[in-house]
TrEMBL record:
It is found in: Cell membrane. GO terms for cellular component: plasma membrane. The keyword ATP-binding applies. One of its GO terms (molecular function) is ATP hydrolysis activity. Signal peptide: none annotated. This is Multidrug ABC transporter ATP-binding protein.
Amino acid sequence: MTVSPFMNEEVTFSGKYSRSIFKTISMSVREFRKKFIICIFLGFLGRAFLLANANIIGKWADHLCKNSPICSSHNDIFLNYSDSDFFILLIIFSTIGILLTLIFRISVSRMGTHSAAIFYDETTLRVSRFPMIFFDTNPIGRIITRFSSDYSAITRMSGGPLSEVLSVTFDLILFFILIMIASPYFLPLLILSVFLNYFVYKLNKYKMRKERRELSISRGPALSHFAETTQGAKIIRVFRKDIAFKNRFSNKINLFISQKNKTNICVSIFSLQMGFLNVFLLFITGAFGIWLVLKGYVSIGALGVAFTFIAMTSTTIQVFFEWISALEEALTGVERMDQFLHKEIEVGAVLPYSTKFNTNHRILSFEEDLKIKSSKIFNMKNADIVVENLSLGYSKNSSLALNNVSFKIDKGEKIGVIGRTGSGKSSLIQALFHLYPFYQGSVKINGYEADVGQEKKSDGKYVNLELFRSSISLIAQEPAIFAGTLRENLIINRKVTDEELMYVAKIAGLGKLFANGNKTLDYVVQEKGAELSLGEKQLICMARCLLQNSPIVLMDEATSSIDPYTEELLINATKQFLNGKTQIIVAHRLTTIEDCDRILWLDSGKLIMDGSPKTVLNAFRHFEESQMH
């Protein structure tokens, strides 16, 4: 497969797991570390009570045949116990063990699930602040895989299976203790059992780990291709490329299935080896135990206890290493998500003070966060914009998308931006929001620059990047609609009453949406607003912009793909609500910017002309006509 020069290759991990992932796991459980330790103690105690029943039954067996030479005559505290006493003791131990184990399993499962959720939230928090170049150079399927398949492996282990792993670990420790209490003669056999099982696990560990890592990587291309296909389904059908895309998807799925089979075969071979070893160890234990009884070294009760625990040990060790293998699959998921957790976020971005993980990213203090939220720097009707010597490129090897652009927009001005495809109109929008780092130059709003780690001037004024961006509202050509209620789609980060919401929605032209009574503010919108028309989506974005009430409004060809009626609604709403605000309109149809105060004409990333609509539009039309002849 040919890899695009603009796409980063998938990271392949090898060797041992890094310390970073164990540090991340520690941070995930830090919130309830004490509770977790208490739960582990209760779980260990619960398993001890349950497993000790075997020792009690062994003593009971010796008590029943105490006059026989193969039974121990030294029953210690159990010497004067009756059958009913043994029975009551078994009931007490079983009841306590079951209750403690139940508390342990429920508590650990809940804490494990909560830890996985914290890990997911913290990773999402950082991914949402990654530089835009990351999303440009990584296929969507690769990102989806991290938050779906890899995270699923973590959640599968963090619930019930986590308590299973811990319970099995408790059992192995208790087997040593309880066999020592029954008879030390069986201890070498127990050690041999553990050693042989560990040897088989060691023999298969790195192979299974490698196959699981390869399996995680093989999911990405299929998911990425599927996402791209669903997004471009209409185009694929129009150009009759259904079969080509289907075949390509089948090839990627076949690669995944092939890797899945290799992984399953590897795990099955491991399980088969453990099964053969288990049968061998049971035979050795039985033969050795009978010899000890015949020689008088151990009683029949002690043999029963030892045989029970060694038989359980073989099975438990097999289960333990199978769980360890599953745990390694979860650790592979942690490893892959942990890579996202520690990636560099965009320059100037900060994490909120509520962040729970320390990953060497800058975190706002409570005072800084409060100061930003209460800041009134941009809490005004309009704002001026100064762009000085601005140059922007999307990567080190690409040509400049903006080349030494300078202009000023006064407070309350309405500015139009025109240019041919590839002239730099979209790049100007990216620059105003600081979505990509500048090669040179600056963008100032009311005299403030965004703090993006640049060299500070002694007389310069700088403001948090998030606050800087919040001063600009965007109505994009492609409306952004989220799965959720209409209310959630309209409100971004302000507390707004339902009355204000309805008023603004109707002014924005959404009156018809609520007129039939089928849709209210609590109406649940499907993903991407599938049930809404393009015009309705754009009107929702307009209402959202009005409610955001930012001093600067940027419209990126907002009317280019809607019908004339909806366009008229949008224009009327902007005239009524945005009057007096600083407006920047990226034009698709020149008629939409004829009433602007000034027009900026961009071409090949350079500012060609800045002047009145009449002057610039006439020059632009003349230029277009000359290019056609």
